[in-house]
Amino acid sequence: MNISEWSEGFQFEVLAADPNSRARLGKLTTPHGVIYTPAFMPVGTYGAVKGITPDELRDAGADIVLANALHLEFRPGSSVVSDLGGIHRLMNWDGPILTDSGGFQTFSLKRLIQQDDDGVTVQSPVDGSKHALNPAKVIEIQRKLGTDFIMPLDICAPGQADRQTVRCALDTTLKWAVESKKAYQETKPVHGKPQALFGIVQGGVHEDLRQEAINSLLDIGFFAYAIGGLAVGESKEDTWNTVELCTGKLPDNTIRYMMGTGTPEDLHKAVSLGIDLFDCVIPTRNGRKGSVFTKNDKLNLRNASFRSDVNPIEDGCNCYSCKQGIDNRPAFSRGTIRHLIMSGDPLGARLGALHNLTFYLNQMNNMRVKLERYLPNTEQCRTV
């Protein structure tokens, strides 16, 4: 079975490229719609972006969202999600969805993980139940969920791990990549529409191991490729050196997804190095706590200095929090949002998260607009 047979309905094409960097404007076609890249995926771990409705996500500029297959297996269970009609019905989201496999949890939930060459046994942080996972099981879970993009089970080594630890993690990841693709080819979508499988490039900060990972994954063959094992304790210099290496070796005609990154500055840097797809919890998690982004600075609305501040979080922002409300004032001022957050009112957390998501998605749109100048014929090809 070749790639076109098991990724029917999916296509990625580079529309334009910046001649002064590796940044590119792309078009990713899926059975649930088109995504123009570079793109950011809001994180909805349990099948919802916490506190944000699907309509609000669309209004903020989201085209694709991310959920976590392992956490959905913990609660409510992939079989329950399947019985409810699949993850698109669960989320009331008709656009594309990507699920992480839970491989990152081998790093973040290490105290709850038992690992061997065949898979992992994970203790649920929800109820203490144990879940035995292997590459085939993880594919089965994501088949039941019905997401557009499936990630294989992998091992994420800490950023400061010694070479031998990274070597062992890579060997296991590559073994599981073979098993994941085999399981994928031997199964069918539960909910009808095709699903595409990513490969995940591991190898820590070691150039030769990353090169080996890329060569092996290209030999196996996947629809697209993610760069994992970054932002887990290594230096920024090592992060960007690794990204530059990987984007220089991965094919131009496939999606390059940098997992779990990052700050607005990180997104701009990664796009310049050739990354197309991102996810991160920073905008929503920070926003719920009152830490909000603007073009010039990051503000902590919990500070007393904002108690009587009548300004919007950011002038000119088109998010629900900042837009014009009554009396030609912002719908919700900095002082109002601070009051809500300090009072423990969920509305304050929602407004902060929604502003940050809009900020991130606007940043991505601005980058796409800048890349349009390199389209062969802008008038005919305008995309965003």
UniProtKB/TrEMBL annotation:
<keyword id="KW-0479">Metal-binding</keyword>
<feature type="region of interest" description="RNA binding; important for wobble base 34 recognition">
    <location>
        <begin position="284"/>
        <end position="288"/>
    </location>
</feature>
<protein>
    <recommendedName>
        <fullName>Queuine tRNA-ribosyltransferase</fullName>
        <ecNumber>2.4.2.29</ecNumber>
    </recommendedName>
</protein>
<feature type="active site" description="Proton acceptor">
    <location>
        <position position="100"/>
    </location>
</feature>
<feature type="binding site">
    <location>
        <position position="355"/>
    </location>
    <ligand>
        <name>Zn(2+)</name>
    </ligand>
</feature>
<keyword id="KW-0328">Glycosyltransferase</keyword>
<dbReference type="InterPro" id="IPR050076">
    <property type="entry name" value="ArchSynthase1/Queuine_TRR"/>
</dbReference>
<feature type="domain" description="tRNA-guanine(15) transglycosylase-like">
    <location>
        <begin position="22"/>
        <end position="372"/>
    </location>
</feature>
<feature type="binding site">
    <location>
        <position position="317"/>
    </location>
    <ligand>
        <name>Zn(2+)</name>
    </ligand>
</feature>
<comment type="function">
    <text>Catalyzes the base-exchange of a guanine (G) residue with the queuine precursor 7-aminomethyl-7-deazaguanine (PreQ1) at position 34 (anticodon wobble position) in tRNAs with GU(N) anticodons (tRNA-Asp, -Asn, -His and -Tyr). Catalysis occurs through a double-displacement mechanism. The nucleophile active site attacks the C1' of nucleotide 34 to detach the guanine base from the RNA, forming a covalent enzyme-RNA intermediate. The proton acceptor active site deprotonates the incoming PreQ1, allowing a nucleophilic attack on the C1' of the ribose to form the product.</text>
</comment>
<dbReference type="GO" id="GO:0008616">
    <property type="term" value="P:tRNA queuosine(34) biosynthetic process"/>
</dbReference>
<dbReference type="GO" id="GO:0046872">
    <property type="term" value="F:metal ion binding"/>
</dbReference>
<dbReference type="InterPro" id="IPR004803">
    <property type="entry name" value="TGT"/>
</dbReference>
<dbReference type="GO" id="GO:0008479">
    <property type="term" value="F:tRNA-guanosine(34) queuine transglycosylase activity"/>
</dbReference>
<feature type="binding site">
    <location>
        <begin position="100"/>
        <end position="104"/>
    </location>
    <ligand>
        <name>substrate</name>
    </ligand>
</feature>
<comment type="subunit">
    <text>Homodimer. Within each dimer, one monomer is responsible for RNA recognition and catalysis, while the other monomer binds to the replacement base PreQ1.</text>
</comment>
<comment type="pathway">
    <text>tRNA modification; tRNA-queuosine biosynthesis.</text>
</comment>
<feature type="binding site">
    <location>
        <position position="229"/>
    </location>
    <ligand>
        <name>substrate</name>
    </ligand>
</feature>
<keyword id="KW-0671">Queuosine biosynthesis</keyword>
<feature type="binding site">
    <location>
        <position position="319"/>
    </location>
    <ligand>
        <name>Zn(2+)</name>
    </ligand>
</feature>
<feature type="binding site">
    <location>
        <position position="202"/>
    </location>
    <ligand>
        <name>substrate</name>
    </ligand>
</feature>
<dbReference type="GO" id="GO:0005829">
    <property type="term" value="C:cytosol"/>
</dbReference>
<feature type="binding site">
    <location>
        <position position="322"/>
    </location>
    <ligand>
        <name>Zn(2+)</name>
    </ligand>
</feature>
<comment type="similarity">
    <text>Belongs to the queuine tRNA-ribosyltransferase family.</text>
</comment>
<feature type="active site" description="Nucleophile">
    <location>
        <position position="279"/>
    </location>
</feature>
<keyword id="KW-0819">tRNA processing</keyword>
<keyword id="KW-0808">Transferase</keyword>
<keyword id="KW-0862">Zinc</keyword>
<dbReference type="InterPro" id="IPR002616">
    <property type="entry name" value="tRNA_ribo_trans-like"/>
</dbReference>
<dbReference type="Pfam" id="PF01702">
    <property type="entry name" value="TGT"/>
</dbReference>
<dbReference type="InterPro" id="IPR036511">
    <property type="entry name" value="TGT-like_sf"/>
</dbReference>
<feature type="binding site">
    <location>
        <position position="154"/>
    </location>
    <ligand>
        <name>substrate</name>
    </ligand>
</feature>
